[in-house]
Every structure is written in C-alpha cells, then in structure tokens.
Design a protein that fits this description.
Elements (H helix, E strand, L loop, with lengths): L1 H18 L13 E10 L3 H9 L10 E8 L10 E6 L2 H4 L3 E7 L3
Antiparallel strand pairs: 1-2, 1-3, 2-4, 3-4
Length: 107
Amino acid sequence: MFSKLSIAVASVLITLAAAIPNSPPPPVTPPSSPQCCNSVVSSTSTAASAVAALLGLDLTGLNVPVGLSCSPITVVGNNCGSTTVTCDAPDKEWGGLIAINCIPITA
C-alpha cells in the first residue's frame, strides 16, 4: 500500500514540476533566520528538488543544506522538537516549504 501511495505522490510531483516554469537558482545569502525545520537535506536531494519544483525554483548548481517544512523561531526558548537551524528563508516567497543554506544551531 505504501509503495503505491509513494508512486502516486511522486507522479503528482513530477507532473506539477513539469507544469511550472523554472526560474534561475535562488541566490545563496548568509543565513539570518532561525528556523524549525522538519528535515534538512542536501539541495541535490530528490526531496529538495521536488519541493523546489513545486515553487518554481531551480536548485541546479547549488550544493547547500536545505530545510524542508520550516517555520520561523520567534520566541526565545522555543521548543522546536525538530531540526533547529539558521537559514535564508524568505517566507513571503516560499511559504515555509523550503529554506536555503541552513546551518544547525547548537546550544
């Protein structure tokens, strides 16, 4: 059952990626936004490419850590429960789906 679901999801993502025109890669700027991300993967990973394609981003040529499903940390002592990182994460453009150039925050 799980394999059929993953194939269906992959098919939908590929269809959406083909339908959305790609833009140039986003600029990699110094990370300045504390984020709580569900996961952090390489920008060359399939997961990062799929999310980027949904947003019309082209990550070709980038090799930086990318946060997926991120939300800004706005309160000191925030209990993230996931991966706490500092990223370049323009919420207005990407709606928390992806953050670029994520560096882990260590206490």
